[in-house]
């Protein structure tokens, strides 16, 4: 074992190596020497642990461990990924893909009027950049934007219901992504949950009977990541709004997925939209920026100045506000919704994917399958009809008819997926019936060539 330890080089000898200097010499030596030391310590631990190694294996282990430990210096962690899973809003892959924003780079590379009123020549408010567009789209008095929809719920409840009861239907106590649950968010805000009704049925009288001097507000939550069918019912937005006004209690509706207005498409017939919710009398609505809206991660509080506007004036707001890059991306995403529906469906990547017809996807799948078989006939790819999904806690009751390129790998499907994830532009696909599936609904323009190249290699 002592002989094996002697094979481990000194830190100084590695740092002074010409090849090492060429690749890593321009980095801070304090950092590189620390990483080298950690790598060599890792090799020592393996030898000391009794791992059966000979001289060539130790040298190879030193080389591979050094390369792995030093790779973060030259390789960025966050990278572009090809989503071939068929899940449109894939939370793990960044949810909504966004169209190119020509205003982002100039804004980030210099200064901007994030919190500066150019007309008055004095400090301004950062929310005005999206507030003005929201006003045009939804006709609301006020709007506040924070870093996600859970933050929007937290901020609204802290503003209007700290120490007070919030009336929510038992069937709407949803679990958000990452195992966070609405009751837990409410507890963190200082609000007191008052459940009414049952899982499948809640009546207007249940809400009316729960209202008291302790009530802070009525909260309606769209269960955007699941659906209850069958013997189920709940009051409409207009009914709850009328009750809230009669009892002089604020009524807030968490619309969820960010469909700004009714769209003439079968996939959206049952999805609540923001414009209708406000039109039905909600004092404020909440929704996400990175789902159907097609923007970056954000949460909106939109409605009256008394309810929505007040949320931007408490100290917690500073902890939840958006940075300039997100503000720029959101403004641009919102501006696409100023256009007619047909333009929204064409320009917004999420809407475009949702609205693609099966025959278009089949044609794209045939093209890609042909390219794959041309570069490597042994692969034997073929076109398969599949189902895609919205994902991201939206449209839970709808699956999309889609077409995919399918491959029966000679090795296991899991091994092929692993190899694809290690490609220069990582490719994330799915397994179905022991086949590796590349669903064309979420494969963007130009990405098919990269899939074919990866499979050829």
Structure description:
Helix 4 packs antiparallel against helix 5 (55-74), helix 7 packs parallel to helix 15 (324-336) and helix 18 runs parallel beside helix 20. The protein has a 7-stranded mixed β-sheet with strand order 4-10-9-8-7-5-6, with helices on both faces. The chain has helices at residues 2-6, 11-15, 18-24, 29-48, 55-74, 104-109, 128-138, 149-160, 182-189, 204-210, 237-247, 274-279, 305-311, 316-320, 324-336, 341-347, 349-355, 358-375, 413-421, 447-456; strands at 82-83, 116-117, 122-123, 142-146, 165-169, 192-196, 215-221, 251-256, 284-288, 299-303, 382-389, 399-407, 427-428, 430-432, 435-439. It has 3 domains: 2-74, no CATH class; 82-92 and 353-456, Aspartate Aminotransferase, domain 1 (Alpha-Beta Complex), CATH 3.90.1150; 100-347, 3-Layer(aba) Sandwich (Aspartate Aminotransferase, domain 2), CATH 3.40.640. The chain is globular, with a radius of gyration of 27 Å. The protein is α/β, with parallel strands linked by helices.
